[in-house]
């Protein structure tokens, strides 16, 4: 099939590359000239494990093309994906300006029947809006389908190539056939393609993200209570996660969720509920708890240094909102670093992938280092913000020889309490006793 992907960010580039991998001829379109120039010259623009191999192969085989020209990109395409940003607007609702702009542009360009697929996360009713905007100028038949994306950054290729399920919202039989054909190679193991109407598909994506954010937040609340009653949240996690009704995943307590999806999607769903005069109490609680959770360790850091961080140096391990990505959108690291700097501390940071992105935001307010150990040079404390695997079994002797004080603040419960006790560290984590 000939397909086009409009918007070549995290979702667009993965979608385009993976559909090229299954034999389609894909053109990725973006308005970012620098990004398209890089991609055209074979340079991948995001860090996503395994994507580079597919990217190189499909470029070589001529199945993956890039352009800044929408007309050229969608020429002869049977399917046109919209993988455009839907950032929060000022009031928290999803801003549809990117999607609706492309819908306006597409109308006059359609020369033959095409399926326009909304891959972006968009509020209920958006497929209808997109349909209306395209219809204003279109001279041919077309369908607008909602096909929310469930990939996780860091394992995006695996998620895309072997999805747990594919959700497709459409009432058009013609579009349904096209979508079935496109996805067939990805669901050969029998994972379902679930068809529903457009509104339900749009809602499914928000329900999934809001549920996962709630699961994490619930566990963070349990962790906060554990600290007060003297229980260990890791034991609670093991104790409840083994119950098949609860499940093991998304039960890790920490300093809150971040990223480009959960915060904005929870906010947008809350906004939708407001628009429909529904008081969605759980979502409000989730947003409030997560906001506090992100900086949960800061008062403890301040207290440790007698409420005076001026001139103190804090080594920060991990900047990305989670491991295996360079994405720092809504990353708890940013808020924590800003507060540390505002309190007069110096920050020496290390992240395997996200430092370039942070440099663009924080510039020279902090020091960027080439290894976790370089970050510790002259530091008064270590603060772990993202649980990259390389932080899990570090050389503790080297850490203690570099740190001025043997103290670790761990926002992701990377280490065991017994281990820290044996090694003689003062250790603060989430939902567990302080090792002093
Ligand atoms: P992104 O910001 O990484 O990429 C969006 C791209 O669209 C950018 O490259 C931007 O330059 C481009 N763009 C903007 N206007 C354009 C236009 N008029 N024409 C062509 N290109 C244009 O965003 P993303 O993370 O890929 O997210 C895209 C959508 O997918 C969002 O709705 C998001 O909520 C959803 N989503 C994201 C993830 C994720 O893990 N990142 C997962 C599932 C769903």
UniProtKB/TrEMBL annotation:
Q: Which UniProt keywords apply?
A: NAD, Oxidoreductase
Protein name according to UniProt: UDP-glucose 6-dehydrogenase
Q: Please state every residue range assigned to the domain named UDP-glucose/GDP-mannose dehydrogenase C-terminal.
A: 315-417
Q: Can you name the source organism?
A: Xanthocytophaga flava
Looking up Gene3D superfamilies in the UniProt record yields: Cytochrome c1, transmembrane anchor, C-terminal, NAD(P)-binding Rossmann-like Domain
Sequence similarity? Belongs to the UDP-glucose/GDP-mannose dehydrogenase family.
Q: Which NCBIfam families match?
A: NDP-sugDHase (TIGR03026)
Output the SMART domains linked to this UniProt entry. UDPG_MGDP_dh_C (SM00984)
Show the InterPro entries listed in the entry. Answer: 6-PGluconate_DH-like_C_sf, NAD(P)-bd_dom_sf, UDP-Glc/GDP-Man, UDP-Glc/GDP-Man_DH_C, UDP-Glc/GDP-Man_DH_C_sf, UDP-Glc/GDP-Man_DH_dimer, UDP-Glc/GDP-Man_DH_N, UDPglc_DH_bac
Does Cell division show up as a keyword for this record?
Answer: no
